[in-house]
Write the structure tokens for this entry.
Amino acid sequence: MSLSQESQSRLDAIVARIDAARKRSVRPAPFTHLIAVSKTHGVEKIEALIEAGQTRFGENRVQEAKAKFTDLKARHPELELHLIGPLQSNKVRDAVALFDYIHSLDRPKLAQALAEARTQSGHCPALFVQVNTGEEPQKSGVIPSETAALVHLARDELALPVVGLMCIPPAEDAPAVHFALLANLARDLGLEFLSMGMSADFETAIAFGATHVRIGSALFGERD
Ligand SMILES: *Cc1c(COP(=O)(O)O)cnc(C)c1O
């Protein structure tokens, strides 16, 4: 199979699984957008997926995304780029210039830095607050009990465009409880979007109302 045939058939298969999971769900979100997670994969594979019809892409490092997507975005203005990895304060300016969405707002200092970058650039990507639902010490994200305070600071005091919550469940847990927790927090805070679900668990995430699923290996193959 050629790269373009393989990309098309992988994309079609994932889109069909997303549709089927939505149909099986009692209360699916109004939509579920597919973010193709292209970290570690080269521009050729990304372009093949764009040709197959994919427009939303996720990267977890600012520098890697800048190297790959500055040119791709200029050539394909319809692309929507999502930062799904942790963001250091010194990369905020680059991230604000490049990404349409940032899924990793997880601390007050970062909210302040984003507000400053918005003042300077006149624009700010849409933001998800990342929640460490498993309260894992090594993982980024605000803990559930501090989520409301961070959302109030970012959205209400700093007037940042906070649109939803994001989580990455602990590898060893059944993901459903984490997706349910994230959905409850978002509902209580009046947030519309839920970024949850990866290659191994996106169908479960859809059952709990995911609006954005982040899928890498099931679309691109295993990473090196
Ligand atoms: C890599 C990554 C994904 C995609 O993971 P797959 O298991 O390859 O689908 C999703 N979300 C985040 C935050 C990631 O870093």
